[in-house]
Design brief:
This protein has 435 residues and is α/β, with parallel strands linked by helices. The chain is built from eight helices and 22 strands.
Length: 435
């Protein structure tokens, strides 16, 4: 069973963003001696910024970095198709889409610091290191290597001492600012930046459910949270995808930073976010057991939030959303628990084969539905027989339209990827939720 911790931010580096500095602040020797991953503003970078990733281990025989950065010209991309351009090949207007690359890092023999420097455009970038490994293997063959996050940029996961972490949980994230000139044709993801002040609180909690097991979840409480406030806070349940955990939206999705910025700017009212761990309840077919998930959320997690965190019990002040498998869970909630929430935010989801949706339900017309996906997302359009899905998002939107069910959509020039979902949730929070 997981070790459940009520965590505020784990380290000082989680409370303060990694520095944005100018090259001129350091001599070459001083810069080489830095141990932390650093974002540097530089006019010679095609994006206006360079990022130097660092990992100190004088004894390591090899260190590799695996990261989110793969790019394409949006005019030369499609479902499963990308230029897979490197950061060095990035051009103004390119979008993030393609297979995440692995690269060798270079060791400074004098300091024992391994480094890798690339230009990156605006946004959050997830990455992790592979330390050691069998000699002579391909760069993406991790046999014998130890997978780890950046020790100078530890992610705020449910338990940083745990050893049975998923791929998502072993990743760190770094933010790069937007350059209005060099990135003029590219999206500005500044809403994901760590806010300097007026920050909410991230913590983790758990409840015991009917079978005696533990249902764990992350919580975001807004800046200035008042447990005794007369009006309870609206609450959004936000679910991860396959292989994710209660930490996924917090670390990979940067949803705490997004909420901090939108709340402080008055673009969304102060609210509570709950991120359940759905991976605790897989079915024998290794898909999410959606009836159990909704039972745990509705009968245990949300009542716990009402009692302990001043969350609203009014369905009109509640929302349910999620990405990928969590998006499929959101559609399940929409058709099978229609009266429990007013807002439904499926991202890169699908209608699963475990139930038959009834588009003729009049109650659907009273709900606020917003759909997110990538234009190159395999969950956007039906392209063939799928063992789990009976309908993807374009079909679902057509069915909504044919039955007079209102909805909005945020479609991003990317694929089935975190860059899509971070954009989706920021857009939905600002334009849809609690409006």
């Amino acid at each position: 069973m997981k070790k459940i911790l009520s965590l505020f931010l784990c380290t000082a580096l989680l409370c303060t963003p990694l520095p944005v500095l100018a090259f001129g602040n350091y001599t070459d020797e001083e810069f080489a001696a830095l141990e932390a991953t650093t974002v540097i503003q530089d006019e010679n970078s095609p994006t206006g910024y360079y990022v130097t990733f660092r990992y100190k281990d004088p004894e390591a025989s090899r260190v590799r970095i695996f990261g989110e950065w793969s790019f394409t010209d949006p005019h030369f991309a499609g479902l499963g198709e990308s230029m897979n351009a490197t950061p060095e090949e990035w051009q103004n207007g390119y979008v993030t889409w393609g297979s995440w690359p692995t690269n060798e890092m270079i060791k400074d023999e004098g300091t024992g610091i391994w480094s890798y420097t690339i230009p990156l455009p605006s946004g959050s970038w997830n990455y992790r290191f592979y330390v050691g490994g069998d000699e002579g293997t391909a760069v993406n063959n991790y046999a014998g290597a130890v997978r780890t996050w950046d020790p100078n940029n530890v992610p705020n996961i449910y338990d940083p001492t745990a050893t049975d972490l998923t791929n998502d949980e072993s990743s760190s994230s770094i933010f790069v600012p937007w350059d209005p000139e060099k990135q003029s044709e590219s999206l500005d993801f500044s809403v994901e930046a760590k806010r300097d002040g007026e920050n909410g609180t991230i913590l983790y909690d758990a409840v015991t459910v009917s079978d005696g097991s533990t249902a764990s979840f992350g919580i975001y409480l807004p800046y200035g949270f008042d447990k005794e406030r007369e009006e309870p806070y609206p609450v959004l349940v936000l679910t991860h995808g396959g292989g994710g955990t209660e930490s996924s939206w917090i670390v990979q999705g940067q949803v705490g930073n997004i909420l901090d910025n939108l709340i402080a700017e008055g673009k969304v009212e102060p609210m509570i976010l709950v991120t359940p761990n759905l991976s605790d309840y897989p079915s024998p077919q290794h898909v999410f057991d959606r009836p159990i998930i909704l039972s745990n959320v509705l009968e245990y997690i949300l009542p716990h939030m009402v009692e302990n965190y001043n969350a609203s019990s009014d369905p009109d002040r509640r929302g349910f959303g999620g990405l990928s498998m969590g998006g499929a869970t959101t559609y399940y909630a929409l058709f099978n628990h229609t009266d429990e929430f007013k807002y439904y935010l499926p991202m890169s989801g699908f209608i699963s084969r475990e139930y038959e949706p009834d588009y003729t339900m009049e109650a659907l017309k009273t709900k606020v539905i917003s759909i997110g996906a990538g234009w190159y997302d395999f969950c956007l359009a039906d392209t063939g027989e799928d063992r789990m899905a009976q309908a993807m998002n374009l079909t679902i939107m057509n069915n909504f339209g044919a039955n007079g069910i209102p909805y909005s959509a945020d479609l991003v020039a990317s694929g089935h990827a975190w860059v899509t979902w971070r954009h989706n949730i920021a857009w939905m929070l600002e334009n849809v939720l609690w409006k």
